[in-house]
Amino acid sequence: MQKLILFVAILLFIGCDEKISFIDIEENINHLESLNSQEREIAQMQIKHAKENNYRLITTKELKDKLESGGDLQIIAAIPRGIYILGFIKNAKNFEFSNNFSGIWEKDTKGSKDKFIDFLGDRKKEIIFYDNGENVAITAAIWAKKLRYENVAILIGGFKGWKERDFEISFDMPTCCQI
């Protein structure tokens, strides 16, 4: 599992011959044959982890619609705070995780487990995690499921997909609910 995550992370960070479109990944998550090889690898990895760990995948369009309709949900940016404050999805809170799930809380995050549980609140509320393509949302979602949260999802394409669609980005540091 860690080798696959490392492979995808390397592809995302060092560049590649084929341009990765998170919009294409999102729109073709059920039709992988229409994606280029690198997009297909990312989509397959997201699908595999979602099935193995019993969380859902949600598209940027679905999240935008939920936000516009005032849906009762929790959005968590599972990225480093320094990156988070440079721009985030409106109303998203921040709780940092590592990109390699170890199953050991202290290795997977710097925050306390009790604070994370308090942070997430109601175990039945919809929780959507996102990252910047480095797969930390997977670690966050796995932990939420391990802690018995029922309605957990990951944003397909993460923040890069959100920005690629030119959806609203907030730069205001929330004054509450930050760990």
Would you spell out the secondary-structure blueprint of this structure?
Blueprint (H helix, E strand, L loop, with lengths): L1 H13 L7 H6 L9 H17 L2 E3 L1 H9 L4 E5 L3 H4 L3 E2 L3 E2 L10 H4 L4 H8 L5 E5 L5 H11 L5 E4 L2 H7 L4 E2 L9
Parallel strand pairs: 1-6, 2-4, 2-5, 5-6
Antiparallel strand pairs: 3-7
Describe this structure in words.
Helices cover 44% and strands 13% of the residues. The strands form two sheets. A five-stranded parallel β-sheet has the order 1-6-5-2-4. The protein has a two-stranded antiparallel ribbon with strand order 3-7. The longest helix has 17 residues. The two termini are 29 Å apart. The N terminus is likely disordered.
Quickly list its features.
179 residues; alpha/beta; five-stranded parallel sheet; two-stranded antiparallel ribbon; 9 helices; 44% helix; 13% strand; disordered N terminus
Gist of the model:
The protein has 179 residues and is of the alpha/beta class. The protein has nine helices and seven strands.
**Helical content class:** 40-55%
Structural class given helices, strands, pairing? alpha/beta
Reading side by side through the largest sheet, how are the strands ordered? 1-6-5-2-4
What's the alpha carbon Rg, rounded to whole Å? 15 Å
Q: Give the H and E element order.
A: HHHEHEHEEHHEHEHE
* Total count of helical runs of at least 4 residues: 9
Per DSSP E runs of 2 or more residues, the count of β-strands stands at 7
Mean pLDDT: 84
Biggest sheet features: 5 strands, parallel
How far is the N terminus from the C terminus? 29 Å
Proportion of residues in β-strands: 5-15%
Shape: globular
Unreliable stretches, pLDDT < 50, 5 or more residues? Answer: 3-16
